[in-house]
Amino acid sequence: MAEKIKNDGEAFVMDLAEHVKKQRWWNKVFGNNSGPAAEKYSVATQLAIGGVTGWCAGYLFQKVGKLAASAVGGGFFLLQIANHTGYIKVDWKRVEQDVNKAKKQLKLNTDRPPKEVRTKVQEVQTFVKKNMVLTGGFAGGFLLGLAS
Fold first, then answer.
1. How far, in Å, CA of 35 to CA of 50, rounded?
2. 35, 125 in Cβ contact below 8 A?
3. Residue pair 82/88 in contact by the 8 Å Cβ criterion
4. What sign for the dihedral angle of Cα 78, 79, 84, 87?
5. Contact 34, 126 (CB under 8 A)
6. What share of the chain has pLDDT > 90, as a percent?
């Protein structure tokens, strides 16, 4: 993909990705270095790789998600039947105490995420910024994989 840009009467062909990288808004949003994948492969190749891997991941996520939801739902269903028929007895007061204790512990830890989490989030943001076309293709493929 290329677009013609006139410069003082001379027409030259510039790669669209290079043209976009030189725009001020691009540098503000994504930084000056647009990453290794953007420099090694063409835009079409990046979209294809991202799309295919995204579709595979989305399709597997859909299948595993259905299986996990069925297993968890079936487990709760069997526990409820066992409770209703008298095979098991649930101490609801103890369950409530444990839930309240867990809520208090979660509230204490929600002030600020740990340093490891912040570091990983920064790494992911850097990867996405450096490989925008690849991650865009992955996101689109992932959504298509979920839908199929």
1. 15
2. no
3. yes
4. positive
5. no
6. 31
Pair 3, 16: CB distance under 8 Å: yes
**Tens digits of residue pLDDT in 10-39:** 444 456 666 666 666 666 666 655 555 556
Q: Is residue 145 classed as helix, strand or coil in its secondary structure?
A: helix
List the alpha helices (DSSP H) in 86-114. 92-108
Number of H helices, E strands in the chain: 7, 2
Nearby residues of 44 by Cβ (< 8 Å), 6 or more positions away: 1
How far is it, in rounded angstroms, from Cα 98 to Cα 94?
6
Amino acid at residue number 103? K
Task: Report which of 145, 144, 142 is spatially closest to residue 50, judged by C-alpha positions.
Answer: 142
Overall pTM > 0.90:
no
- What tens digit of pLDDT does each residue of 101-140 get? 988 887 776 667 778 888 888 898 888 888 888 888 999 9
Contacts of 98 (CB under 8 A, 6+ apart): none
